[in-house]
Amino acid sequence: MNVHSAVNDHATGDATTSRRPNGSAMHTDNSEAELDGAALHQALSIATPEEREDILRETVRTQLADILAPKPIDGDSNFLENGLTSLTALELTRNLMTLTDVEIPLVAILEYPTPAQLGHYLAEAYTAVNSSDGATA
Fold first, then answer.
1. Where is this region: Disordered (predicted)?
2. Domains along the chain with CATH numbers
């Protein structure tokens, strides 16, 4: 099992959201509690900068796929073109902040509108937050 599957090994739609009959995501009371960033933090702490960016891109893609299920999401898929709304953008940023312990402004969804771009942003922010000098992104 590689680092990506160890961190993001779950079926689309499990644990983080409940589905309404129309297939849209609905935030549940226990969904944040079920997001455990321990495996992600462990993988990120031993990853090279390139691996860290790959892991975070895949984490963004996986979280987005959970929220927008059953739509498949690739690394270059634009969030808004795939149906992300202001409510689901809030859910995405909240899930990613819970997993990474990195503060993500909601505007980052517009500034970095694909999993690859947001993963790159998160990798830089994660490195800055976790650097020994205490700098923040």
1. 1-33
2. 3-129 (1.10.1200.10)
